[in-house]
Amino acid sequence: MPYPKPTRRSWAEPWKVKMVEPIRMTTRPQRERCIVEAGYNTFLLRSEDVYIDLLTDSGTNAMSDNQWAGMMLGDEAYAGSRNFYHLWEAVTEYYGYKYLVPTHQGRGAEHILSKIMIKPGDFVPGNRYFTTTRLHQELAGGTFVDVIIDEAHDPANEHPFKGNVDFGKLQRLIDEVGAKKIPYVSVAGTVNMAGGQPQSMANLRALRELCSRHGIPIVLDATRAIENAYFIQQREEGYRNKKVAEILKEYCSYADSSTMSAKKDTLTNIGGWLATNDQGLFEEARNMVVVYEGLHTYGGLAGRDMEAMARGIVESVDDDHMRARIGQVEYLGQHLIDWAIPIVRPIGGHAVFLDARAIYAHIPQSQYPAQALAADLYIDSGVRSMERGAVSAGRDPKTGEERFPKLELVRLTLPRRVYTQAHTDVAAESVLAVYEQREQARGLKMVYEPKYLRFFQARFEQI
Ligand code: F0G
């Protein structure tokens, strides 16, 4: 077959590979054994038994030579490390926040923020939940209220900004419980659990106006805000000629504070922060961080990790980097769309989300079709993915009932700068192979259920 003539200019990554990490190929019988031992939970597999690891984009990034060089310049002083000041400068320059409290990762910042801001009986509205974020809100005595637009719950809906807040839903909550019972509105860009979907600039700007009228602060989960900024550049009127860095700064300017898992956008393996313009919150957080994380100039991190973050921020806002990063996710997603495999549309920023409810339509949600699909993918090819459906949603803390979300998804998450186009092809072909065998798939029953964030450690057996 002749090599097909390209219909347009290709793009390629703005980097080349300097060091490689061998990965192990396994056989199908080996993988069948491994997944049984792991209780059909991809979190419980050993990484050595995984061929292509699309579990998460969290802490799995490849750092640049410049970041590694920075690691050697770690100032491992207990107090006042110079790398802390580099990080603070980078966060202020690119995200725009005045004050910075470093934490070991995102949930460290969520813990401190929730403890400070939420009182028992409060309500925290958000554009869909994230697992750790909601748990910290609940542990602080709050109740999470989903105020994302309805389109976000429909995998087939092509809305360009499915991460948007529905102001009708938010206003109803304010009218019902009163602004005093809402310590802040929690917004994330992009929205992980909705399929990596962005929020528009117009939506956050309007939210700012609404919240200011009621005296309610906004806390941004900035974990993937740079990917969100890229989508604004591509999809929102008036932003086509602006740099991602410029868009990021405007986006963050509408939120009073932000929590961050720096293990994603900012191209590192560990790290996080709480950043704010509110001096009172800063002082409380700076005090509380010494109880739970470490001194306020390292927050559980080594000096070298803070240096890698500071340098990673600069690299991550580069337009060419973002084009290649999201371009790879699109490349994977487009294959699946071309083969008519149901995925969340539009294709997300950090991952392609398979619609397990549609793919395994014969398996009821109480038998965890997404969990089963992730296990089947692993058995087929050694590609590791993650359930993002009923298992992740867990139980209602008040009633103890299982939550069955509309979205029952499997996430194929692309680590940044790690895998090649060929790896992506292998993953896509494996999804196709499993899709073609879908009628033979069987559901799962949960045989072990931990109390918190059950998806990490739950165990299953095939029905
Ligand atoms: N917020 C968002 C949007 C996240 O995606 C994550 C982590 C966190 C907060 C918590 O940060 O892991 O550094 O403590 N998401 C990972 C994932 C675990 O795979 O999506 P953390």
Report on this model:
It is globular and about 60 Å long. It has helices spanning 28-37, 65-71, 82-94, 106-117, 131-139, 167-177, 201-214, 225-235, 244-253, 279-292, 303-316, 319-338, 356-359, 369-381, 390-393, 421-436, and strands at residues 52-53, 99-103, 123-126, 143-146, 185-188, 218-221, 257-261, 272-276, 351-355, 383-384, 386-388, 409-413, 444-448, 459-462. The chain has a 5-stranded mixed sheet, with helices on both faces. A 3-stranded antiparallel sheet has the order 9-12-11. Strands 1-10 form a two-stranded parallel ribbon. With 463 residues, it is an alpha/beta fold. The N and C termini lie far apart (44 Å). The protein has 16 helices and 14 strands. The protein folds into 2 domains: 28-57 and 319-462, Aspartate Aminotransferase, domain 1; 65-316, Aspartate Aminotransferase, domain 2. The structure holds ligand F0G.
Mean pLDDT across all amino acids: 97
For this structure, the CATH topology of the largest domain is Aspartate Aminotransferase, domain 2
- Kindly report the name of the CATH homologous superfamily of the largest domain: Type I PLP-dependent aspartate aminotransferase-like (Major domain)
Q: How far apart are the first and last residues' alpha carbons, in Å? A: 44 Å
Q: What oligomerization state is this entry in? A: single chain
Structural class: alpha/beta
Radius of gyration: 21 Å
Characterize the biggest β-sheet.
5 strands, mixed
Beta-strand share of residues? 5-15%
Top CATH class of the largest domain: Alpha Beta
Helix percentage range: 25-40%
| Contiguous helical run count | 16
What is the CATH architecture descriptor of the largest domain? 3-Layer(aba) Sandwich
Tell me, what's the shape? globular
Task: List the bound ligands.
Answer: ligand F0G
Biggest sheet: strand arrangement: 2-8-7-6-5
Low-confidence stretches: none
Let me know the number of strands.
14
How many distinct domains? 2
The H/E string reads: HEHHEHEHEHEHEHHEEHHHEHHEEHEHEE
